[in-house]
Amino acid sequence: MDRNRLARQVALQKQSLFDQGYIDQQFIQVEELQDVSSPNFVEEIVTSYYQDTSRLIVNIEQALERRPLDFDQLDRYIYQLNGRSTSFGARKVIAEGALFREYCEAENAEGCKTTFQQLKTEYATLKRKLEAYFQLARQARLAETASRPM
Amino acid sequence: MNPSNGKGSMSTASSSAAWKAGDVVPDQFPAGLRVLVVDDDPTCLVILEKMLRACLYEVTKCNRAEIALSLLRENKNGFDIVISDVHMPDMDGFKLLEHIGLEMDLPVIMMSADDGKNVVMKGVTHGACDYLIKPVRIEALRNIWQHVVRKRKNEWRELEQSGSVEEGDRQQKPCDDLDYSSSANEGNWKSSKKRKDEEEETEERDDSSTLKKPRVVWSVELHQQFVAAVNQLGIDKAVPKKILELMNVPGLTRENVASHLQKYRLYLRRLSGVSQHHSSLNNSFMSPEATFGPMSSLNGLDLQTLAVTGQLPAQSLANLQAAGLGRSAAKSGIPMPLIDQRNLFSFENPKSRFGEGQQQHLSSSKPMNLLHGIPTTMEPKQLASLHQSAQSLGNMNVQVNSHGAQSSSLLMQMAKTQSRGNILNESAGSHLPTLPSSIGQPIISNGIAGGVIGRNEIGDNGRGTGYNQVAQTSSMLSFPMNHTTELAGNNFPIGSTPGISNVTSKGAFHEEVNSEIKSSAGFVPSYDIFNDLHPQKSQDWELQNVGLHFNASQNANPVQGNLDVSSSVLVHQGYSSRQQGSGQNRNISAMGRTMFSGLEATGQGNEQIMDQLLNNLIVDTPVRVKYERFSDTSSQNALFADPFGQEDLMSALLKQQQGNTGPAEPDFDFDGYSIDNIPV
């Protein structure tokens, strides 16, 4: 593929993700940290993020099953999840997380459960979109490298 | 300067060279600034690392506060600044902040996704020099060097105000420390002190701000005096001027006292928050829940014991003491944590302890771990108190020692059993307790041993991280080795610290320990250190000796246990030394370190041994004991002394001190603030 075209595509996709609110400025910043020594830096970050947080997601789910709900525990979990999400700018996930926290504070079980479902959706959606994005970015990089004069 | 960054940071060679310029800020400053980042979030950690590297800083990542603390303790001058998250599962960020402020006096930046005013305010009151809101931008990180420069400047100014007298004072202090270490230390102390002096002069690291900052060394003795003065005046009415007058230490300035008082107050405040649970404890250092909590998770077994002990602070201690020594039943000097430990040991199953090995550790270690949590400021005090108690025990130990070759063997055994790497792990600080467990059984033949061990542990705890570990191991070792009596005397080099002797005298512990140790035979040599230590009264950290001895014992003792013991002791020493600026810590850490290496070699429950050794050592300071025990879990992760434990011990110790005059010099007053000398 034409590397310019790929590069443009990558940029466009990133912009679209940004506009839709899936990622925010932090993501851009983190991406800027990428360099020759670590070309897949952002991808690695995101991968480790999903690995780390998948456990959290499970914990929250289990916690939500308990009766009565331990809101403090839930709040702690979500705080952790949010902390990690902010690191690379997963905006929608953070937003849902913040909402979840509010429901926790209000001790609204229903609200918590509903929000959590939404959060999980956003979490999964982001993963898909980012994966597609990274794939494209990798291709663009490869094309760039390939077309570089030796 | 030691390149302290162990985690893949760039070599510090260039930066050290840069700093050596002394008064001149290196041209590349702030490039090469050595940053330690602590955060349980791996994503954030990696991103921060990248950003900091982009700023040309040297970065060391750490995902656990305990690891961070041990790293900092090992490399006193290895870092320029610390960035830590507020919410971490293993330790509260603010607690870590206090520890660092007290022990290493480094600038600490807090960070969190939480930007609530209260949290930020908390950061300010705990002494953070800045507070960053996540997500952290690289721009925010570019200027963190200013905090380093500012701090240096302030310290320098303070020193200058105090005049050159401080330098003299400082020199004095180290000497005292040297005395403590005694020959057994093989000059660890001396070298560490020397190093400290040199460092003070060259300030390789401190020169980052181009200011040589001679620090006042708050040795255990000095801190003891300080605490005594404060207690006399009443914590509320204690003003630097009056404290200074009461202390009557030539060369000490009002500014020194003022800053030390500030830190001490912070420490107390923190302890009072933690020690609510310990109403029963004299010292109220340890909040049973708090301290034991972590422990339990770690040790499992000990937890219960500890909890129990926590509840019985005074009585147990008294019992232990009475049982062990048969003399002064109530060792006032010994902080509750110590007692608890003793209880643990004695209660647990003196004999079976070792059999259970780990379990024993837990019980013994737990108390020790408790100490971990106590910040250094507290530690000195506690140590001091422990020291006193230890000393009394020590005396008893002496008697015991005479019998003692066996205890060493016991220790060896313990070491063996324990060697499972627990010790090593604990070496980080909290592992000491593990040792005791293994040792527990054999040692306490006399009953004293048990006591001693307990003491040792505690002593360590008091110290902060360093001692506990060593003490524990030592105590443990010593006990088993001798049939109690021996422990007091020969076997536990660690015993030399007052704590150790206490341990042996305590008895209950001893028995346990002794039994185990018995099997090992060659320990005796190693414990000689203890003997040496005993004579030294306020050798805060005779552990040093222990450490040395353990090495010796290694040779002597055929059993791995020796190695384990020694390594554990060494490791602990390493920790202890880290903990305290004064020699005590060093000794212990040195010992611990050696021990650990030995242990590692053996691959056995080093931790256990260490713990025991440390326990022994720590007898003096309950704090110590606490400290070591907690991190039982992984042999290799021993580095973490349970901060809560220590803290609790410390507070308990402090309280004790305040409550009773204490047997001897209650305060270990290690150079909590300037632990530069600790030999690594």
TrEMBL record, chain A:
Every HPt domain range: 44-127
GO molecular function: histidine phosphotransfer kinase activity; protein histidine kinase binding
Record flagged with keyword Lyase: no
Keywords: Acetylation, Cytokinin signaling pathway, Cytoplasm, Nucleus, Two-component regulatory system
UniProt GO cellular component terms: cytosol; nucleus
Annotated Gene3D superfamilies: HPT domain
Localization of this protein: Cytoplasm, Cytosol; Nucleus
Main location (coarse class): cytoplasm
Biological-process GO terms, alphabetical: cytokinin-activated signaling pathway; phosphorelay signal transduction system
UniProt keyword Ribonucleoprotein, yes or no: no
Domain free text: Histidine-containing phosphotransfer domain (HPt) contains an active histidine that mediates the phosphotransfer.
Function according to Swiss-Prot or TrEMBL: Functions as a two-component phosphorelay mediators between cytokinin sensor histidine kinases and response regulators (B-type ARRs). Plays an important role in propagating cytokinin signal transduction.
Protein name: Histidine-containing phosphotransfer protein
